[in-house]
Known about the structure:
Radius of gyration: 20 Å
Shape: elongated
Order of helices and strands: HHHHH
Number of strands: 0
Number of domains: 1
Helix content: over 70%
Oligomer: single chain
Number of helices: 5
Amino acid sequence: MIGLLLERFCGVLRVLIGVLTMVLALPVAAQVIARYTGIIPVYLWTEELATFIFVWVVMIGSMVAVWDGTHFSVDVLPQAKSPLLKLLQNGFVLVLLILFGLLFAWYGIEYTQFGAIQHSVMMGANMAVTHVSVPIAGIVWAVFSTYRLSEAIQKYRNARVAS
């Protein structure tokens, strides 16, 4: 049940990445047209908007990558053959992900508070709009990794019972 909810949440994140990427194309296209053709005036706020959207695309992309298990792990050792060693290998990475997620969430709150007292130069937007992506990503990383760790433990238990 929880896995299904998290999978659906990740599906929403994937759609959000697609929408934000399409929206990102608009200010970037305006910048390119303005700089190279002179048809429209150069608006500097489009650069800020593109940066804000890009930050969110990156952070949401990292959340999806954690769910898919494609972001924070590097195979240094060969894949273990025994269920216990598989659990230890995968569990180590997942525990580190949980810890980093919690660190991002904890210190991201202070980072967001710092952003809340600042405004962007051209748009006048509150910088907390982008800064809040850090603790949100940390929370989602921790939740996704905790679920994946519980799956790995269950997989180990099933393999142990089967043998």
